[in-house]
Design brief:
Blueprint lengths: L1 H22 L7 H11 L6 H10 L6 H19 L8 E2 L2 E2 L1 H5 L1 H21 L6 H15 L4 H10 L7 H26 L4 H34 L14 H5 L1 H21 L5 H11 L4
Antiparallel strand pairs: 1-2
Helix pairs in contact: 2-6, 3-4, 3-9, 3-13, 4-6, 4-9, 7-9, 8-9, 9-10, 10-12, 12-13
The structure holds geranylgeranyl diphosphate.
Geranylgeranyl diphosphate binds next to α4, α8, α9 and α10.
């Protein structure tokens, strides 16, 4: 239970800082835009990306803006992903999606606003010492969020019109759409902590593994979470009939793959020389979010 308490404490720390950062916009931007940005940014969420970054950065000062920016970018992507033109979802983080509350126009602008505010936050936070590391970390985040990462993955996803049928294409899309930002969270934190080339090599493997697991577990939760209601027992996304890991490999093998990836992730973490009990537990949490 100590881990869950620690998780809550760290989540609260991130949320207080996100709220503080948002306060800086209060009264300076159109009210519906502010409320819409705040609605989604402070709507809960596991805060896994900023948490990974802060754990990797360790005691390195000046890392907080990177963590906050990651959550803003992640939130913008969720707002846009939920739009009728994309996934057309009506619930997110247990609440009505942004466009359901504020309308599509404001939801699009709130997403744009959060993306830009992420970069304002990053630029405002450039530290006096170790600015070189910070800028390198910023570069990693920018690339992962952009056309070579999340945006590119999403573009391929919509181009396939939700009709991906082979596992390699699915993996390539997921690697960019979901995995890139998770990998960037780990690698940007590692750069801040000045890890060696050898350590970075293992951390790259670690972060790629957990990025992949993240998506697979999400697919599994779709089945185990509400199979009776959604009829997703086949493992295929009922909305657009695209293939998923459980749909391709079957439930049993998918669970085995997650288990293997979990153990490989721990092995990479160990080989990277990082000894952080919370990070080990967080890896377990990511690999089995059924807590
Ligand atoms: C619109 C450019 C653009 C990109 C969208 C994030 C994304 C890319 C798509 C989401 C598709 C999806 C639901 C993938 C499953 C894995 C995932 C990213 C889940 C949501 O992230 P969590 O679990 O959410 O970290 P919380 O709410 O905890 O922050």
């Amino acid at each position: 239970m100590i881990f869950l308490e620690e998780l809550d404490r760290k989540r609260a720390y991130i949320e207080v800082n996100l709220a503080c950062r948002m306060e800086e916009l209060k009264g300076k931007i159109p009210t519906p835009l502010f409320e819409s940005m705040e609605y989604s940014l402070l709507a809960g969420g596991k805060r896994i990306r900023p948490m990974l970054l802060l754990e990797m950065a360790g005691s390195m000062e000046g890392s907080l803006p990177l963590a906050l920016a990651l959550e803003m970018i992640h939130t913008y992507s969720l707002i846009h992903d939920d739009l009728p033109a994309m996934d057309n979802d009506s619930m997110r983080r247990g609440k009505p999606t942004n466009h359901m509350v504020y309308g599509e126009q404001i939801a699009i602008l709130a997403g744009d606003g959060l993306l830009n505010f992420a970069f304002e936050t990053l630029l405002d936070g450039i530290p006096r010492s170790h600015a070189d590391r910070y800028l390198a970390a910023m570069r990693i985040v920018a690339e992962a969020a952009g056309v070579q990462g999340m945006v590119g993955g999403q573009a391929d996803d919509v181009q396939n019109e939700g009709n991906i049928q082979d596992i390699d294409t699915l993996e390539s899309i997921n690697k960019r759409k979901t995995g890139a930002l998770i990998k960037a969270s780990v690698m940007a934190g590692a750069i801040m902590a000045n890890k060696t080339k050898e350590q970075l090599k293992y951390l790259e493997q670690y972060s790629e593994n957990i990025g992949l697991v993240f998506q697979i577990v999400d697919d599994l939760l779709d089945i185990t979470g509400d199979a009776s209601r959604t009829g997703k027992e086949t493992g295929n996304d009922s909305k657009n009939n695209k293939i998923t890991y459980p749909g391709f490999y079957g439930l049993e093998k998918t669970v085995k793959i997650v288990d293997e990836l979990y153990h490989q992730s721990l092995d990479c973490l160990h080989k990277s020389g990082i000894s952080n009990d919370f990070l080990v537990e967080l890896t377990g949490f990511i690999c089995n979010r059924d807590y």
